[in-house]
Request: fold
Amino acid sequence: MPENTSGPTDTAPTNLLLSSNKVDSTKVASRDGDSLGSVHSFMVNKRTGEVTYAVLSLGGFLGMGKSYYPLPFELLSYDHVADGYIVTVDRRLLEGGPSWSNNAPDFNQAYADRVSNYYGVAPQDLSLT
Reply:
């Protein structure tokens, strides 16, 4: 029997899933359609395999001066028409939230609680047991 060499590629889009290699630089916009920035990374829960936070990259020019904002993933929705994420919080609230520009914080339970409290969502248990 001949070998099937026409299998799916790494970059083939699907209806529901987004390949991890496509996440970086996915557009992020406000509810009003204003461009906010892009996804820098996702924080994945090691126990459940679910995305818990999206780290958004905002601002900057030519890679300099960017700020990174962790946002509970439940506050984003995917718009397949715009091929990007829509943030359900106001831009001013987002820009006033926990962030960093040079050195990422230790994303431990205390920091996760700070992010959750700021956005008024249920805290996530990040313990490994």
